[in-house]
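Board notes (copied after class):
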Amino acid sequence: MKKIIIIIFIISLFLTLFSQENLAGDITDFSSDIIKNDIYLKVKIDDISIQYDLWVRTGDIQILKNIDLQIDELIKNYGELSELQYLKGIMYMYYYKDYDKALEYLKKSSDKNPKNAYTYFLMGNIYVQLNDYNKAFLELNKAIKLEPNNDTFIYLYALIYESIDENHFAIEYLNKALKINKNHEYYISRGNNYAHIGEYEKAILDYDEALNILNNMINNKGNLDKQDLYYRIMYKKATLFRYMYEEEKGLVLIDEIIKNIDKISNDYFQKIVYLEKVNLLYDLKRYDEGIEIYQNLLLDSKEYYFCALYAKLLYKINDPSESINILDKIEDLDEEYKLDFVSYLRGINFISLKEYKKALNEINKTNFNFDISYRDKNFLLKGLIYEALNEEKMALNYYKIYLEKIEDKDIKNRYELIKANKEVENIEVFIEDLYKQRKLLY
């Protein structure tokens, strides 16, 4: 996902390279004497840049096909100019998705004109897609050396660090970018990085800066296309308030979004907003309000995401039978992580219903290759189930595996008492205590 964001971000950056201002001026990074002196070629390249812009806005593949034919015709008539090699590289990067061929053309362009920083910038992005971050940084360094105050180059540097979870380095480069340009995207990105490392107050400050800029763009400049982003950032703030145990503040923001829900074009995001309200209401122990929202939101929905979260809430408020009914409705179980989580939820609900063999059957279906923390929980659940089934030897075995991975005083004490043949608390009472402590489900 992060790589896709990087691609979308840079698509429009090269469009200005062929603008009339650039071609008319005495620039050193891009514009050969042939282009300056050939009005037809100048107009054709400018027209191609306009078509690229139209493609970015519409996504019409036919536009790219036409651009490619025009570039080939120009190469046929004018030879391998660095500008044309550059354009061809962009075609292979975005249209054909052939990164090796794109690099070949971009390298030809840089060989002919080593002063065009954007060529190195694009090659850096290609190496990101190829997971070769060392080469990506090398190319970006070349671009930044040519244009040290180009905040877009610095921003991509930060995005790469963010994509590999080097958040402190990402923040360092975002600080540099923001000194040059107070761009709302940079504030959002820095806020995301602060949130990732748990510095929620700093993240909220950055989100506030972004919201102020976006509000100005929407209300004073008429950029209504920024409304979705504005409310998404408000949503991010609300989630952070929940992490900071300031649920009331988060609820105020979510209610503000809901008040303006018609301004949000994405139906799926509208549902996500309501789900966050349910999370906040749950933390505030306003369970009935949360259930009502789910019932209105879901109606006859069979989508995994919404049904799983609703089932999770029902389990938390001790309604395991209804939780299982909701899980049984899900139809889009087309990925391993979905199957794992649904089986896990069914398993813990069956434990609550004291149907331990059914619980064991569900837990045995899970692998949790995507989430080690839940995989560790499985060992605990199996230990509890086997103990409830009076199979102490198996229970001890799974408790031992669990304790090798997780420090848990309650389980450790129980494990040692059972091993020493000493009396322990009734297993069903013990499971109930674990439920109250939220130890069985995050």
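Comment from the instructor: Residues 1-143 form a domain with the Serine Threonine Protein Phosphatase 5, Tetratricopeptide repeat fold (CATH 1.25.40.10). Residues 191 and 203 are 4 Å apart (CA to CA).
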